[in-house]
């Protein structure tokens, strides 16, 4: 009975929850160049998107494909998840996200390199100027099949040249590998 009352109270309070920070949109599509440097050097492309279905919730996803340098090995990664954003000031959101991930490198030396996993990250996204926002996140990702889980950090920024068009840059620091992305972003 107590659990039911708590669940009803939480559901009733959702419409009263703080909205996203003013000027930050979780509705976007982006595509661009992706590169990894470190233990493995690779480059390719990525496409990502996000859709806010509530003031505080959004779904996001992405696909990227990279070819490892000096090999014929292509690594594809898919990601889909759910995010929660809570305005902690007029210009800053607290951000928490969880995602399902799939890593597919095809068949290498007679072995299928196809792994399912998940990630979770938390951080902040802030409108730093009228046309510029940035974010800082820490996360953890883990895959099945003997790949050890690892913590990572992400920094990113979006510069808008018009109400809808801008440029996004993102750097992910994951152990000995640094992954960076740059590309145009369409926001609505």
From TrEMBL:
SUPFAM superfamilies on file: Porins
Keyword Translocase tagged: no
Signal peptide positions on this chain: 1-20
Keyword Metal-binding recorded: no
Sorted UniProt keywords: Signal
Name of the protein in its database record: Ax21 family protein
């Amino acid at each position: 009975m107590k659990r039911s009352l708590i669940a009803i109270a939480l559901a009733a309070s959702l419409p009263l929850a703080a909205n996203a920070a003013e000027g930050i949109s979780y509705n976007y599509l982006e595509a661009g160049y992706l590169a990894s440097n470190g233990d493995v050097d690779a480059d390719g492309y990525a496409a990502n998107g996000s859709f806010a279905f509530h003031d505080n919730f959004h779904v996001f996803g992405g696909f990227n494909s990279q070819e490892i340098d000096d090999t014929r090995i292509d690594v594809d990664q898919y990601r889909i998840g759910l995010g929660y954003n809570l305005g902690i000031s007029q210009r800053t959101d607290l951000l928490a996200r969880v995602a399902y991930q799939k890593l597919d490198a095809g068949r290498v030396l007679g072995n299928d390199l196809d792994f399912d996993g998940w990630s979770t990250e938390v951080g902040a996204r802030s409108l730093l100027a009228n046309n510029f926002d940035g974010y800082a996140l820490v996360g953890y990702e883990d895959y099945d099949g003997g790949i050890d889980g690892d913590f990572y950090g992400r920094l990113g920024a979006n510069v808008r040249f018009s109400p809808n068009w801008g440029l996004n840059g993102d750097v992910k620091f994951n152990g000995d590998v640094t992954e960076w992305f740059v590309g145009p972003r369409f926001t609505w």
